[in-house]
Amino acid sequence: IMNGFPKNARVCFIGDSITHNNGFVSRVYDYYHQNLKERNVNIYNCGVGGGRVSTALPIMEAILEIVPERT
């Protein structure tokens, strides 16, 4: 059984154009903000069209600069 993301989690979905464009991330976002708002989960769609395994590390480094760290 999946318990979901913990309170105050920062969730970043990475992948290629399928991640970026298919709407899955927005459905997860909608679910948390409609049903589990008290968890205060921040969800980021970091899918990049044309992404490949060889580009994953540079993308992750860029994401770490963009996604704010919680204090």
Order of helices and strands: EHHEH
Q: How many β-strand runs? A: 2
The percent range for helix content is 25-40%
- Range of strand content: 15-25%
| Strand order, largest beta sheet | 1-2
Which structural category do the helix and sheet elements fall into? alpha+beta
**Tally of individual helices:** 3
What would you note in describing this structure?
This protein has three helices and two strands, in the order βααβα. The protein has a two-stranded parallel ribbon with strand order 1-2. It has helices spanning 17-21, 24-35, 56-66, and strands spanning 10-15, 42-47. The chain is an alpha+beta fold.
Secondary structure: elements and pairs:
Blueprint (H helix, E strand, L loop, with lengths): L9 E6 L1 H5 L2 H12 L6 E6 L8 H11 L5
Salient structural properties:
71 residues, alpha+beta, two-stranded parallel sheet, 2 strands, 39% helix, 17% strand
Quick overview of this protein structure:
With 71 residues, this protein is α+β, with helices and mostly antiparallel strands. 39% of the residues lie in helices and 17% in strands. The chain contains 3 helices and 2 strands, in the order βααβα.
